[in-house]
Amino acid sequence: MRKVISFMHITLDGYVSGPNGELNWAKVDQELFGYVGNRIKNGDTALYGRTTYQMMEGYWPTAGDKPNATKHDIEHSKWYNNVHKIVLSKTLHGTDKPNTTIISDNIVDQINEIKKHKGEEILLFGSPTATHSLIQLNLIDGFWLFVNPIILGRGVSLYNDINVKINLKLLPTTRQFSNGVTELNYEVDRTI
């Protein structure tokens, strides 16, 4: 069965964005882009909350076509345009966008059905509200976190309104990048 993996940048004090959704604290560079690109290049399904999806949709479809596009922009734009996008939203209904499915109800049944399909892991990109919902519904199978060397003190917490206990097992793929970001991979341990 496929797994839903939550992928996001996080501060040392557990925030995934500033109070107004800011991500200007997240350290990204070509080393990190290349590393992430290698993991997701074979991925066939991306999962987003509405806000993150609309932000991605506003940039990635044409990012690789711009004259000043970086290697990362070109590669990620191509990947984004080809990947099947699943969007969790109570306000979006249907779409004419290719490779895009909107889920607005029966989330547990629909995500579990998608997990049964053949394919790679399902990456949940950013999307703190969707992540909170999927944690509460026991649909997250792992966390792929990039811990940034910063303490914000306030913002949107990864753990906001979470009232369930989740046992995690650290996978041996932890890595530190030259910009100070540390990658942590956790698998949800359902054996405890």
UniProtKB/TrEMBL annotation:
Output the InterPro entries linked to this UniProt entry: DHFR-like_dom_sf (IPR024072), RibDG_C (IPR002734), Riboflavin_Biosynth_HTPR (IPR050765)
Tell me which Pfam families the record gives: RibD_C
**Could you tell me which SUPFAM superfamilies the record lists for this protein?**
Dihydrofolate reductase-like
A molecular-function term among this protein's GO annotations:
5-amino-6-(5-phosphoribosylamino)uracil reductase activity
Q: Which Gene3D superfamilies match?
A: Dihydrofolate Reductase, subunit A
Tell me the ranges covered by the Bacterial bifunctional deaminase-reductase C-terminal domain, including all copies: 2-173
- Coiled-coil residues are none
Q: Which domain of life does the protein's organism represent?
A: Bacteria
Output the GO biological process annotations, alphabetical, semicolon-separated.
Answer: riboflavin biosynthetic process
Q: Which PANTHER family is this protein grouped with?
A: 2,5-DIAMINO-6-RIBOSYLAMINO-4(3H)-PYRIMIDINONE 5'-PHOSPHATE REDUCTASE (PTHR38011:SF11), DIHYDROFOLATE REDUCTASE FAMILY PROTEIN (AFU_ORTHOLOGUE AFUA_8G06820) (PTHR38011)
* Protein name as it appears in the record: Dihydrofolate reductase
